[in-house]
Amino acid sequence: MKLRGLLAALALFFISFDAKAGVLADWTNFIIEDSKDILCRHNYDLYLPFYAWHNRLTYDKKHIDKYNENPWGGGLGISHYNSEGTWSGLYAMAFKDSNSYLETYFGYARQWNWYAGDKNQWHAGVGYALGLTQRHEYAYIPVPLPLPMVGAGYRNFEIHGAYVPGIKNDGNVMFMFARINF
Q1: Which residue, 70, 77, 105, 148, could crosslink 45 as a Cys pair with Cβ 3.0–4.6 Å?
Q2: Among the options 34, 45, 80, 98, which is catalytic?
Q3: DSSP reduced 3-state for 146
Q4: Which of 84, 135, 140 has the alpha carbon at shortest distance from 111?
């Protein structure tokens, strides 16, 4: 009986994995096609990291006191808005991490926007960033880091926030950066 149950569980796992693999392939193809669009028609972006808020509900005072929350650095990217006003971009940033070491992040981001009034004025949105980070703790080996993201802006200036999930005294950081589109 246990063997049958195990075989049934394995069969369900592989059936669901096959279905998820199809969705993953579709999603990967979408990102590749959107990246090609960005490369063909784009504007240039300047990225300015300015704040890394460590969630006070998940950190003790000892850690909060020692962590750097001013991730000064910068980055460059290319991006575009599609006909629906959705922003997507490719970018690279370097900044001081929570321990004041160099950290890099490079990847792809997409944000669906809502507009107030004229489409070229005030906007806010939600989205995600898919990228690789390199940190001191990982010997600067690139590590995948998908993140949820929000943003709000006026014309070509936008403030973004990406949340790094985590556990007690690790992760759980809202990383804030400005993006200026040229």
Answers
A1: 77
A2: 98
A3: coil
A4: 84
